[in-house]
Amino acid sequence: MARTLITVPRTARRDEIIEIRALVQHSMETGYRRSSEGDLLPRDLIRRFTCRFVPRVAANSSATSTAGDLIFAATFHAAIAANPYLSFNLRATTSGTLVFSWEGDNGLAQTETVSLLVA
Amino acid sequence: MKRRSFLASSAGLVASVIVRPVAAIEQSTVLTALVKEYAAGAVVREGRVKFDIARLVDNGNSVPVEVTVDSPMTPQQHVVGITLFNEKNPQNDVAQFSLSHLSGRARVATRIRLATTQQLVAVAKMNDGSCWTHTVEVLVTVSSCIEE
Predict the structure, then answer these.
(1) Average pLDDT over residues B20-39
(2) Shortest CB distance from A78 goes to which of B61, B104, B145?
(3) pLDDT band per the 50, 70, 90 thresholds, residue A24
(4) Interface contact A23, partner B, CB < 8 A
(5) Do B109 and A87 touch (CB under 8 A)?
(6) Domain count for chain A
(7) Which residue range is the domain that position A85 belongs to?
(8) Tens of pLDDT along A73-94?
(9) E-assigned strands of chain B?
């Protein structure tokens, strides 16, 4: 499991535009570098990042969507620095959960969730 | 060359570097081709995009970049994608970002690697299909990607 660091304000006013920052610990090995023995270091990259927003569903209503709305996605290549960092924005409309996912080489798949309260 | 004349000529060289205009750089053919392919037939224009990056980079291993696009980000009018290309890294792709009107602000920031002194371009694709670009030139003193 890679370590992640996600920064989201705990609460937001309705229609406020919040900043979301997400960082994941990863070497982002390009596949072009060589070790001290001269062997080519195999490529190991995070390829894809997505951030979804799942609105909080009222208890008595039938749940419509658990996947949520895609608010931001990124496709990474070797030119992204180690420990990929992203900062983007979201217009806060309702309370809910932000779902962050990273996918990459060697079967890397990690998901983190953060709840957002909109007053 | 006499020391005095050498100093005079090198001073002139420094001055010419400083007064070089910042705006309106000529986009390299590599980048033009990449942007054209990404646009897939749509009109590509310069403007509306702001590519924020240091013009002089000490260390190419981690270079902060920020791209902002002039867009109201409403359901009717918003940015759907931002793409970054480089000219001289081993691969020309840097990253592709997908946005929607839910974003509220057309902005993304990250950190990238730069192998050498080169040009970079940010392309924003709007929901009406039009593409807007901003090309920047960056001077890199310590490279990334290939070296240890």
Answers:
(1) 77
(2) B145
(3) very high
(4) no
(5) yes
(6) 1
(7) 4-118
(8) 999 999 999 999 999 999 999 9
(9) 44-46, 49-53, 56-59, 63-69, 79-86, 93-98, 107-112, 118-126, 131-142
